[in-house]
Design a protein that fits this description.
- This protein is of the alpha/beta class and about 375 residues long.
- The protein has a domain of about 240 residues: Type I PLP-dependent aspartate aminotransferase-like (Major domain) (Aspartate Aminotransferase, domain 2), CATH 3.40.640.
- It is built from twelve helices and twelve strands.
- The two termini are about 30 Å apart.
Length: about 375
C-alpha cells in the first residue's frame, strides 16, 4: 500500500454510521466498487472477494476446470497461483520464465498436452506478460487464459488494462499491493458463463438468499464456498481506486527517471511493455550471479531468487504432491489425475532459477523526491 488517509477514514465512518456493514441491504459499497472497477479498467463484470487467491479459484471454477485437467503456471509467482489450481482439483504444470521475468511463451508451448485447459500468465511485480503471444497460443490450442494481475493493479499492456485481456483476470488488494484494503481481491471478466459460475461459487451459501443477486443469472446454483466481501473493505477500495492511476503515474515517472539516469551504467530487465509496467520495481540485470549478489547487498535490494514462496523451488506442498489434508480430496491422489501429474523437482526450471539469481530488485516509491532519486542514482553509480 502506498497512499491512504482521510478519504478512507471518512468512507469507513460512512459505513459504520449506516449500521449496515453487510454486503446486501446497506449502502451498496461492494456493488458500487464492482461497477466502478469495471468502468475504470474496461471490464464487463467484476466480483469483489476476500483475496486474489479466492478470485483465481473462482475464475477456474467458472472455466469448468477440475480433475483431469492441467493448468500451466510460471515457476516465478507466489505459491497461491499454483495452489488455486490444486484447489479446484486440477494439476499445475510449471513453466519457465524469460528475461522479462514473466512466463516464457516457448516453454508454455512445450508444456501443452491434451489435458491442458488453461494458462495463467502472472504479471509479477507489475511486469506485463507477452499477452499477444499468449492469447494467440491459447486460441490455437483452445485454452482459457486467466491473468493473475494480483501484483499489477492498474497496469496495462499495449493500452489495455491487465486482467481484461484474457478470458478472466484476478486482482489482489492485500497490504502489499498498489491499492489496498488490507486484504481483498476481485475477479473481472467479459465472459458471462465464467462470471455466473464464479459468482455462485464465491458465495453459494448466501447469494441466493439475500437480495436479488441472482436476477438475470441463468446458471443453476450449486455448492461452493464463502469469499464474500464486506462493505467496510469495499468503501476503502472505492477511495483507493480513485488514487490508483495517480499512484501508478508517479511510480512510472520515478522509475523512468532513475532508469534514464543509470542507462549508461547498468542493464535493466527487458519489458513486454514498459509503458504499461506498473513501475513498482527497478530490475537491475547482471551477467553473473556473483555480481548480482554483491549489488543486492550493497544497494539493499532483493534478488528474486531470495523471495521464498514466490519461487517454485519453495512450493513445498506442490513439489511433494500434498494437495489436501484428506486423501480423497487431494488432486495428486485422484484417479482422474493419475496419468497427468508431472515429475516436480527443485531444479526442473533451471532457466528460471538462473534469471532470478542474476536480477536485483529495488522498490520504487511514488512519493520519492528529486533528492531521493538523486541519492539512489549516486549510490548505484558508486557501485561501479
Amino acid at each position: 500500500m502506498y497512499r491512504i488517509g482521510k478519504e478512507e477514514i471518512a468512507a469507513v465512518a460512512r459505513v459504520i454510521e449506516s449500521k449496515q456493514i453487510f454486503k446486501v441491504g446497506g449502502l451498496n459499497e461492494v456493488f458500487n466498487f464492482e461497477n466502478e472497477l469495471c468502468e475504470k479498467i474496461g471490464a464487463e463484470k467484476a466480483i469483489m472477494m476476500t483475496s486474489g487467491k479466492a478470485s483465481l479459484i473462482s475464475a477456474l471454477i467458472g472455466m469448468g476446470i477440475g480433475p483431469g485437467d492441467q493448468v500451466i503456471v510460471p515457476g516465478y509467482t507466489y505459491i497461491a497461483s499454483a495452489m488455486a489450481i490444486v484447489a479446484v482439483g486440477a494439476i499445475p504444470v510449471i513453466a519457465e520464465i524469460d528475461d522479462t521475468l514473466t512466463i516464457d511463451i516457448k516453454d508454455i508451448e512445450k508444456k501443452i498436452t491434451s489435458h491442458t485447459k488453461a494458462i495463467i500468465p502472472v504479471h509479477i511485480q507489475g511486469f506485463p506478460c507477452n499477452m499477444d503471444a499468449i492469447c494467440a497460443l491459447a486460441k490455437k490450442h483452445n485454452l482459457f487464459v486467466l491473468e493473475d494481475a494480483c501484483q499489477a493493479d492498474g497496469g496495462s499492456y499495449h493500452g489495455k488494462r491487465l486482467a481484461t485481456i484474457g478470458d478472466a483476470g484476478a486482482f489482489s488488494f492485500n497490504f502489499f499491493k498498489i491499492v489496498s484494503a488490507g486484504e481483498g481481491g476481485a475477479l473481472v471478466t467479459d465472459n458471462r458463463e465464467i462470471f455466473e459460475r464464479a459468482y455462485i461459487y464465491h458465495d453459494s451459501s448466501a447469494i441466493a438468499f439475500f437480495g436479488n443477486q441472482l436476477d438475470g443469472v441463468g446458471t443453476v446454483p450449486f455448492c461452493g464456498v464463502q469469499y464474500r466481501a464486506n462493505e467496510v473493505s469495499a468503501a476503502i477500495m472505492r477511495e483507493q481506486l480513485k488514487k490508483m492511476d495517480d499512484i501508478i503515474a508517479d511510480l512510472r515517472a520515478n522509475k523512468k527517471t532513475v532508469m534514464d539516469a543509470l542507462a549508461a551504467d547498468f542493464a535493466f530487465a527487458p519489458s513486454n511493455d514498459i509503458k504499461g509496467d506498473c513501475g513498482t520495481t527497478l530490475t537491475f540485470k547482471f551477467d553473473t550471479i556473483d555480481e548480482a549478489a554483491k549489488f543486492e547487498e550493497y544497494i539493499g535490494g532483493t534478488r528474486p531468487i531470495n523471495t521464498g514462496k514466490h519461487v517454485y523451488s519453495h512450493w513445498t506442498p506442490i513439489l511433494e504432491k500434498r494437495g489436501a489434508l484428506h486423501p480423497l480430496m487431494d488432486p495428486f491422489k485422484m484417479e482422474a489425475n493419475k496419468d497427468i501429474i508431472p515429475e516436480y523437482s527443485k531444479d526442473m526450471c533451471p532457466k528460471t532459477l538462473d534469471i532470478l539469481s542474476k536480477n536485483v530488485y529495488v522498490s520504487v516509491n511514488p512519493d520519492w523526491t528529486k533528492e531521493d532519486m538523486e541519492k539512489l542514482v549516486a549510490k548505484c553509480k558508486a557501485f561501479k
